Amino acid sequence: MIGSLKLEFVWNEKNIKSQVKSFLAWMAYFKILLNRLSR
Fold first, then answer.
1. What secondary structure letter does DSSP report for 17?
2. Burial of 5 (0-12, 13-18, 19+ CB in 10 A)
3. What whole-number distance in Å separates Cα of residue 6 and Cα of residue 22?
4. How far apart are CA 29 and CA 35, in angstroms?
5. The pTM is what?
6. Which of 3, 2, 5, 1 is nearest to 13 (CA)?
7. Spatial distance between the Cα atoms of 8 and 28, rounded to a whole number of angstroms
C-alpha cells in the first residue's frame, strides 16, 4: 500500500512538472507574440 502511494506521488510530481513546462513555454510564446505586436 505504501509503495503504491509513493508511485502515485512520483507520477503526480512528473505530471506537475510537465504542466509547469508547458505553461512556461506558453508564456514565452505569448511574450514573443506581444513583442511582435508592439513593434
1. H
2. exposed
3. 25
4. 10
5. 0.57
6. 5
7. 30
Residues 1-39 pLDDT 10s: 567 777 777 778 888 899 999 999 999 999 999 999 998
Report the percent of the chain where pLDDT is more than 90.
54
CA–CA separation, 22 and 2 (whole Å): 31
The one-letter code for the residue type at 2 is I
Classify residue 39 by its DSSP letter.
Answer: -
One-letter identity of residue 37:
L
Q: Which amino acid is at 14?
A: K
Backbone angles phi, psi at 28, to 5 degrees: -65, -45
